[in-house]
């Protein structure tokens, strides 16, 4: 699957918006993820408004480029679907990866922006987007057409594998 092998974090974007069908396809990929007991404890808040993206780019010191993104997705866990935040986190991580790989397949770059378990970041996101229980903001993903062709890293590490 080429989209998986060529995905790499993209932090500089062109100025254009994403098409509604591209956004839907990315979200569909998120919904395809596996989840513990098929609870699907995710909730996606899609942000395209430039002013909002600029505000959100301050949620973490490592998210400044979100203000140049065409779209941000706040990935939330839903504790009403699985009270275990650990499982919410694992399931939502799977959905996040799916969305990033699908975006790459569409020629759209993306970057994961870490939030949870950093309490300050979670609180910032809660306030900025009025996220309430049972939802908990976990992290964001920035999306946009890459400004430059990203180069792919070779991450294969033979010594990180043991066959039994
Ligand atoms: C949980 C998680 C949090 C991350 N948070 C950030 C972040 O806040 N800002 C950022 O620029 N990149 C962030 N990244 C992207 C990583 O830096 C990137 O995936 C890593 O350097 C490997 O590079 P690659 O994605 O190009 O393969 C995060 C990735 C993960 C999985």
UniProtKB/TrEMBL annotation:
Gene3D superfamilies: NADH Oxidase (3.40.109.10). It comes from the Bacteria. InterPro entries: Nitroreductase (IPR029479), Nitroreductase-like (IPR000415), Nitroreductase/BluB (IPR050627). CDD domains: nitroreductase. Pfam families: Nitroreductase (PF00881). Residues 6-57, 63-145 form the Nitroreductase domain. PANTHER family: NAD(P)H NITROREDUCTASE RV3131-RELATED, NADPH NITROREDUCTASE. This is Nitroreductase family protein.
């Amino acid at each position: 699957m080429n989209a998986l092998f060529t995905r790499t974090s993209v932090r500089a974007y062109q100025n254009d918006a994403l098409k509604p069908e591209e956004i839907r396809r990315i979200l569909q990929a998120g919904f395809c993820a596996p989840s513990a007991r098929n609870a699907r404890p995710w909730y996606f808040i899609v942000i395209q408004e430039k002013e909002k993206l600029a505000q959100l780019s301050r949620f973490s010191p490592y998210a400044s480029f979100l203000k140049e993104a065409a779209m941000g997705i706040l990935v939330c866990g839903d504790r009403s679907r699985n009270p275990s935040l650990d499982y919410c986190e694992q399931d939502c991580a799977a959905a996040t990866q799916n969305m990033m790989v699908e975006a790459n397949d569409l020629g759209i770059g993306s970057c994961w922006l870490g939030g949870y378990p950093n309490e300050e970041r979670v609180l910032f996101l809660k306030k900025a987007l009025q996220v309430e229980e049972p939802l908990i903001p976990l992290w964001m993903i920035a999306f946009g057409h890459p400004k430059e062709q990203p180069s792919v890293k070779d991450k294969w590490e033979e010594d990180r594998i043991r066959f039994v």
